[in-house]
Amino acid sequence: MSWEAGLEQWGLENDTTSTSKSSGRGSGIAHGSCVELEVEEHKRGYPRLAAFVASDPSFAIARRFSYLHARNVLYRQDRLADIEAQLQELDEKEQTQWYLSSRRDDGNSLRTQLLSSLGDELHEYEKALFSHLRVHTLPSPSSRTKENVQSWMDQYKPLVKSEAEFISQSDLLSLDATEDRGRFDEIIEWVVERVLPWNLGYRLLSSKETRVMTSDQNMHIYKPGRLRMLSRVAITLIVVALLLVPMLVLYNVHTSLRRFLTIIFSILGFALIVCLTTKAKKVEIFAATAAYGAVLVVFVAQSA
């Protein structure tokens, strides 16, 4: 079987794309003696996949391996439990009190061997525990990010089928240190990409450096921080609107029932928006809603 046929068998096709393709802006970005290639200019396979992952922090997705971490913790735990049981049994059966009272003169070689290996076993157990803890504190990628990475891999097929299956697993984590995106950030990104005309959203969120990182017109790489900044501006305007609109209504409403209903629906709307568009904790939602309600109540009391 030829190597071309082997590639086709594994879901790959022969990549005949030249790594020095020409374009209107030239091949890659020159920085002194180093040239940064476009994503598509890297050799097909792990080099191109690595270039794609490195092009945007949100593309850094890996498996969590929760099951294997749990197995490792349980395995190390039982080894320590076995050592603990053996030590207790040796201590109970020990006939010479001097051996139990002196580490230096302990003549029980089996107990000495167990205690010598105890430090290493405890160290490995603690490593497994904290590794398990760190992995589970890393955030999961958003569904949009996972879809973007999976769509790119389906299009370019950088890996053989068996090695590309990791992206379809359910135990994925994000290595993006700034991955604090909530539903509101995804809504803002969707609005910017789909609603704004003339490709204005892409120009707004990208920069000259990110635009030349790829020649794929369907792949949009944004400048880090611009989407978060736009999201903060939008949420600031929404918060201001949520404060001013009820105040204007309350100012023009003079009956107690209508004011009461305005306060109730305003508080419910505020709580729902915070709950659905952010990753705020329960206590944070409670505190923010209480503060918002207090502002409206104070306004009603002063304007009465």
TrEMBL record:
Pfam families linked: DUF6594
Membrane-crossing residue ranges in chain numbering: 229-251, 257-276, 283-301
DUF6594 domain sequence ranges: 46-297
Cited InterPro entries: DUF6594
Keywords: Membrane, Transmembrane, Transmembrane helix
Protein name: DUF6594 domain-containing protein
Natural source organism: Lentithecium fluviatile CBS 122367
